[in-house]
Design goal:
Number of domains: 2
Structural class: mainly alpha
Largest sheet: none
Order of helices and strands: HHHHHHH
Oligomer: single chain
Strand content: under 5%
Shape: flat
C-alpha cells in the first residue's frame, strides 16, 4: 500500500510542479507535514544533498524521499513516478508534432524557435565566459585547444584535464 501511495504522491508532484526542481518543494513539505514518511528536517537535508549531487534537484529529492520512506524500491518508485508525467507529456507532444509537421504555421514557429534557442544559449555562454574570465583560464583554454588539434583524444579527456587544473587552481587560490 505504501508503494501505491508513493507512486500517487510523486506522480502528483511531477504533474503539477512547473518551474524546475525547487517548484516541488511546497508539495514535499506538504508530504512531510501530512505523512510520517520523513520530517521537515530530513527534507531540508535531502534538499541540501540534492543540490550538490548531479542531476535535477526535483528528481534527486524524490529519490532521497522514496529511499527514506521505503528503501531502494521506494526510491525507484518515487523517481519513476515524478518523471513519468513529463515523459507522457513529451510523447503526446511529439505525436502531435508529427501530425502537424507539414502545417505551414507549425513549420514557421519551429523555424523561428530554433535560432532563438541557439541565440539564448549563445548569450548565456558568452555571459558565463565574460563573468568568469581570468588569465589562468584563458591560458588553459588555448593550451588545451592547441593540444586537441595536435593529439586527437576524446573530448571528455580534455574536459577532465581542465576540471582537474581548475580544481588545483581554486585550491591554490584558497590556500593564499
Amino acid at each position: 500500500m505504501i508503494y501505491l501511495q508513493l507512486f500517487l504522491e510523486f506522480f502528483h508532484i511531477g504533474l503539477f510542479s512547473f518551474g524546475g526542481g525547487y517548484a516541488t518543494l511546497p508539495f514535499l513539505f506538504h508530504i512531510a507535514e501530512t505523512k510520517d514518511w520523513y520530517s521537515a528536517k530530513q527534507l531540508t537535508d535531502m534538499i541540501a544533498i540534492s543540490s550538490i549531487t548531479p542531476g535535477p534537484v526535483g528528481v534527486n529529492v524524490a529519490t532521497f524521499a522514496g529511499y527514506t520512506t521505503s528503501g531502494i524500491l521506494g526510491a525507484l518508485i518515487a523517481t519513476t513516478s515524478v518523471i513519468l508525467p513529463s515523459i507522457i507529456i513529451v510523447i503526446i507532444i511529439s505525436k502531435l508534432l508529427q501530425q502537424f509537421k507539414h502545417n505551414p504555421y507549425v513549420r514557421s514557429v519551429i523555424y523561428t524557435i530554433k535560432p532563438a534557442g541557439c541565440g539564448l544559449l549563445a548569450a548565456v555562454g558568452v555571459n558565463m565566459f565574460l563573468n568568469n574570465i581570468n588569465l589562468f583560464g584563458m591560458v588553459l583554454f588555448v593550451a588545451l585547444l592547441i593540444l586537441s588539434f595536435i593529439k586527437k583524444r576524446d573530448p571528455l579527456f580534455y574536459l577532465g584535464v581542465s576540471a582537474l587544473f581548475g580544481l588545483l587552481y581554486s585550491f591554490v587560490g584558497f590556500i593564499k
